[in-house]
Write a structure and sequence with these properties.
This protein is an alpha+beta fold and 419 residues long. It contains 10 helices and 12 strands. Helices cover 29% and strands 15% of the residues. The strands form 3 sheets. Strands 3, 5, 6, 7, 9, 11 and 12 form a 7-stranded antiparallel β-sheet that branches. Helix 4 (130-137) runs parallel beside helix 7 (197-220).
């Protein structure tokens, strides 16, 4: 006996025997019954898209369960995400490699070798200019070709296109007044112009050497102290008066000095074949006589902490302790080029001995209690110059004796004969 259909309308039959209710995630919806009330919803399938219609017929009993459907990727996932992934990956790679502009490796040059930096710098310089750099630097012992090249790099970046330069003209940045003082027709082409690289290179060398001479005199007199090249570069950028006023490299000149020294490292190949100023060895046989009868050294040449100022710096000579009034004599024949009272050295005498073993040599005698010679006086080895004292910055009677070779302080001991 047939049971009436629980749903109003014509009777409907289902294939096969009654089946237990499937698991919710695999529920197969019943076929659509047109006679069913409109309010009767079809069984809900959580895995199906909301707009997907119910199947017209039920699947066979032995049909496999339909796979769970997944939402398809949207336009952002298909189009934007791959590009964004590539971009992020590229940024990470460039940052690690130090190639991304603005990264520390790029700014500091950590990803570049010193050889590459030097090659890049020297590539800016026409090969024909290098001999002129060497000749210009040879005008005085303090200069090196690399220093001149660095100065030109700082002024113009070695850009020889005069139309592209503003302000002072030419690669060395000479204005009209400075060119009138230092400019010459160096290459012999009949004209003298700061816009001609060779003329400019030679003029810069003349200017630097003149400044080196000025600060050397100031250092000899004891009014300034410091490295001769540093003082020369400071005088170039601030003027000799500022260096003399400060008694050293003035604060306003420090940045320029550091910049040139850093740039000069990129042009060091231009210095090959040239001796480093002031670094030549003392003569193999001593050429100076002892300046006093006392050969005991209380403070040798080299870095030390000053006993009064407590500043650690180079002790530029040797100290020979002796009783007040002990005679001080000339170490070699020469001309007295300075003899006066100074703040730090007290009574100080400087004797110029001319050229010795290919180098310009001077000797100095400081902290004297009395001076027995005057500037311009010719002396011979053993001439009485003054008496041991303790004038200037001194802790007691002694002779501070220095040897200056090509403008640079040397250890005096190798220059002196056996005691």
């Amino acid at each position: 006996m047939n049971e009436p259909s629980p749903i109003p309308g014509p009777a409907q039959s289902f294939p096969g025997p009654a089946q237990p209710a499937p698991e919710p995630e695999h529920f197969a919806p019943a076929p659509y019954d047109a006679s069913a009330p409109e309010t009767a919803p079809a069984p809900y399938d959580a895995s199906a898209p909301e707009t997907a219609p119910a199947p017209e017929t039920a699947p066979p009993e032995d049909a496999p369960k339909p796979p769970k459907k997944r939402r398809r990727p949207g336009p952002f996932t298909l189009l934007a995400l791959p590009g964004l992934t590539v971009l992020v990956g590229s940024v990470v790679f460039l940052t690690v490699a130090g190639k991304l502009p603005g990264t520390e490796a790029d700014e500091e040059g950590a990803a570049r070798t010193p050889a590459a930096e030097e090659s890049d710098a020297t590539a800016l310089v026409d090969d024909s200019f290098v001999p002129w750099l060497k000749q210009a630097a040879g005008a005085c012992t303090v200069l090196r070709p690399s220093v001149l090249a660095a100065q030109i790099d700082a002024e113009s970046g070695w850009n020889t296109d005069s139309a592209a330069l503003t302000g002072p003209t030419g690669i060395a940045g000479f204005d009209a007044a400075a060119w009138k003082k230092w400019g010459k027709d160096a290459d012999g082409n009949g004209t003298s112009s700061p816009k001609e690289p060779v003329d400019a290179i030679m003029a810069l060398g003349r200017q630097d050497c003149a400044l080196a001479d000025e600060v050397t005199k100031a250092r000899t007199s004891g009014t300034v102290n410091g490295d001769l090249l540093d003082l020369t570069l400071a005088a170039y950028t601030t003027g000799t008066a500022e260096v003399t006023k400060a008694g050293k490299v003035p604060a306003k000149g420090t940045a320029y000095v550091k910049k040139i020294e850093k740039l000069a490292k990129h042009y060091k190949t231009f210095d090959k074949g040239d001796a480093t100023p002031g670094q030549g060895a003392a003569p193999t046989s001593a050429v100076l006589a002892w300046p006093s009868a006392t050969h005991t050294v209380s403070s040798p040449y080299g870095t030390r902490e000053h006993p009064l100022t407590h500043v650690t710096k180079l002790h530029t000579g040797v100290d020979f302790p002796a009783a007040q009034g002990t005679p001080v004599t000339a170490a070699r024949e020469g001309t007295v080029v300075f003899a006066a009272l100074t703040k730090a050295y007290g009574n100080r005498i400087v004797v110029d001995h001319g050229t010795i073993s290919g180098a310009h040599v001077q000797t100095t005698y400081s902290h004297l209690s009395a001076m027995h010679v005057t500037t311009g006086q010719h002396v011979t080895t053993g001439t009485l110059l003054g008496d041991v004292g303790s004038t200037g910055l001194s802790t007691g009677p002694h002779l501070h004796f220095e040897v200056i070779r090509d403008g640079y302080y040397n250890d005096p001991m190798p220059w002196l004969g056996a005691g």
